[in-house]
Specification:
The complex is a heterodimer of chains A (290) and B (316). Chain A has 14 helices and no strands. Chain B is built from ten helices and eight strands. The longest helix of chain B is centred in the first third of the chain and has 28 residues. In chain B, the strands form two sheets. In chain B, strands 2-1-3-4 form a four-stranded parallel beta sheet, with helices on both faces. In chain B, strands 6-5-7-8 form a four-stranded parallel beta sheet, sandwiched between helices. The chains are: A mainly alpha (290), B alpha/beta (316). The interface between A and B is medium-sized, with 30 and 22 residues.
Chain lengths: 290, 316
């Protein structure tokens, strides 16, 4: 009974808890595989940069039509894509590397976004933007998250091979196919799409948390890409469930609680992970010495 | 030299004109009694009583929060030039005392709330499993609720205090002030009766709302509508799942039909709570500031009528 009260009854009693759990789980299904590919392509920080880049687009959508889901989503998506493509374009046209131009563009974007939100709204509106609210998911937002996850999975199924090949051996892919470029752009679009989905639930600052942290965690548990993807999704869902319970029982804000649970799992994985965990490393080294 | 004379004459005339214009302006200001009030609701009450004889201003204008106002040097100048200063009292505008001191004004300061029966602040009702962070809720800081004007009967006390204050500062206008005050008192009595009649249209079991406002204690006591505090949802912090669950439970257990949350609370969260409990989301209530002339609460009477209309709308 105690365990039931602790783990189940919050979801049985309150619809907003069920909605939050469904939202965060579906988000994890779409975003975690994207995160795995990001880490594989050494673009983990790219997720952060794009998350911030979304802000001005969403803010313009907000200026135009208030807290409308459609306007903010479209605006955010466009802003995210523009920044990603512009960073790639600047990198190709000038001597600046892609990460440097991305860093510059996302800062510009973030400052622009904060300025735009502040023009009409107040600091509280800005907080909604930065942090979102996973506890206030309405039908529209849930549908949006579901669509994002569906589109992500279908697109990934199409571009999975070129993406993985390019990550592992870009030269080989170029020699056998020209699908690398389009696949890369489609992938960037997926990153933006998932961040926009996460933005509604977790806000710009933490949206990237459901994408990257589960992916990083999964690297400590498997070297096989499929297994990594599955464990990343699992880590995302477990983080969402435990984070919501923490928010319910300990009174923490839900978004940060979810990301913090991921962080705890991450720390545990760093220590105990099967692949490259610290303790495992110690044990095997001793094994070699013996 | 001969050429210089006309220019000099023109200059002299110009100076004379300027001086006399300034005198005329001073004289027209001098006709009127300059009164400074701390916030917009008092300004409206003083204007009703003072009529044409007074020039009244409010340091904290429409739409701004008088609780946390930070006075500017300009305010000290305005206070210094006033011949009467009207404040609410009951600890509402703590910054006002310092401002009056700093301006070194000789003008009398009257507290409009003198004679009002003070109430303790509306403490949140004890909830199951409640634990306050740090042992004190934010209500515990003050021991008196200053929002006395939310009862129209108290507003009548305000009006008589303001009338006496105006007569004290400008004895020549006594008749004027007494007549204005009497007329306004009658209007307030009508307002009071209207509010009671409106409340009577709500079934007694439905006379309760849950709210983030903490300014309706006197209104609640006077007119018999329970204002239950929505703890945890504030404009300052992000609500946790526990806070929302607690509010949803309170609404369900006590069958509260109306939600009145401040504008700054996330509207999506509000809609979720309403969907989860079947309670109706009420409109905006104005508690301690009036709106500009274009808004729905440009005067005290408008504000009270607006509020009761919104409450009836949500609860009936």
């Amino acid at each position: 009974m105690l365990i039931y009260d602790l783990l189940v009854s919050p979801f049985a009693e309150f619809e907003f808890m069920r909605r939050a759990l469904v939202g965060i789980s579906v988000l994890a299904v779409g975003a975690a595989p994207v995160g795995v590919l990001l880490t594989l392509r050494r673009m983990s920080l790219m997720g952060d940069a794009m998350a911030h880049a979304i802000l001005p687009g969403a803010a313009i959508g907000y200026l135009v039509s208030g807290l409308s889901l459609f306007a903010m989503t479209t605006g955010g998506l466009i802003a995210g894509l523009v920044v990603a493509l512009a960073a790639g374009g600047v990198a190709r046209a000038t001597e600046l590397k892609e990460d440097a131009s991305l860093a510059a563009l996302f800062l510009i974007s973030l400052a622009l976004g904060v300025a735009i939100v502040s023009v009409r709204g107040n600091s509280v509106d800005l907080l909604h933007f930065l942090f979102g609210n996973v506890l206030a998911l309405d039908n529209e937002t849930l549908v949006l998250i579901a669509v994002v996850a569906t589109v992500s999975l279908l697109t990934l199924a199409l571009i999975w091979r070129p993406l993985v090949l390019e990550s592992v051996d870009a030269g080989f892919l170029r020699s056998v196919s020209r699908s690398g470029g389009p696949a890369h752009i489609a992938f960037l679009a997926l990153v933006a799409l998932n961040l926009v989905g996460g933005f509604q639930a977790l806000g710009t600052l933490l949206a990237v948390g459901v994408m990257i942290l589960p992916a990083v965690i999964s690297r400590f548990w498997s070297r096989d890409l499929t297994a990594m993807t599955v464990s990343a999704v699992a880590a995302g869902i477990v983080s969402g469930y435990c984070g919501l319970l923490m928010s319910y029982h300990a009174g923490l804000p839900a978004g940060p609680a979810i990301v913090l649970v991921s962080a705890v799992i991450y720390c545990a994985s760093v220590l105990f992970g099967r692949c490259g965990g610290l303790l495992r490393g110690l044990v095997s080294r001793r094994h070699l010495e013996a | 030299m001969a050429r210089g004379l006309p220019a000099l004459a023109v200059a002299a005339v110009a100076v004379l004109v300027t001086i006399s214009a300034a005198r005329a302006q001073a004289a027209s200001n001098g006709d009127k009694l300059t009164v400074v009030t701390s916030f917009s609701i008092l300004r409206d009450l003083v204007r009703e009583v003072g009529g044409d004889r007074v020039e009244v201003s409010a340091l904290v204008g429409p739409g701004a929060d008088a609780h946390v106002y930070a006075p500017t040097p300009r305010d000290a100048k305005i206070v210094g030039a006033a011949r009467l200063i009207v404040v609410n009292g009951l600890g509402f505008e703590g910054w006002m005392d310092r401002l009056v001191q700093a301006s070194a004004t000789q003008a009398p300061v009257i507290a409009a709330s003198v004679g009002v029966m003070p109430q303790p602040p509306p403490y949140p009702p004890p909830l199951a499993g409640e634990d306050r962070v740090g042992g004190r809720s934010r209500y515990a800081a003050a021991s008196i609720d200053p929002h006395a004007w939310q009862s129209v009967r108290n507003a009548q006390i305000y009006v008589s205090n303001i009338r006496d204050g105006l007569i004290g500062a400008d004895p020549l206008g006594r008749q004027n002030y007494e007549a204005n005050a009497a007329a306004y008192m009658a209007e307030l009595a009508g307002l009071d009766a209207d509010i009671r009649r409106a409340v009577a249209t709500i079934p007694p079991a439905r006379r309760k709302v849950i709210t983030t406002h903490d300014a309706f204690g006197y209104f609640a006591a006077e007119y018999g509508i329970a204002f239950i505090a929505a703890q945890g949802v504030s404009t300052e912090t992000e609500a946790s799942a526990r806070d929302i669950a607690r509010i949803v439970r309170v609404i369900r257990e006590q069958n509260i039909p109306g939600l009145f949350f401040e504008n700054a609370v996330d509207p999506r969260l509000l809609r979720r709570i309403a969907a989860e409990t079947g309670a109706r989301i009420g409109g905006t209530l104005f508690s301690d500031t009036l709106t500009t002339a274009a808004g729905p609460a440009a005067t005290y009477v408008d504000m009270m009528r607006h509020n009761i209309r919104e409450i009836v709308e949500a609860l009936k």
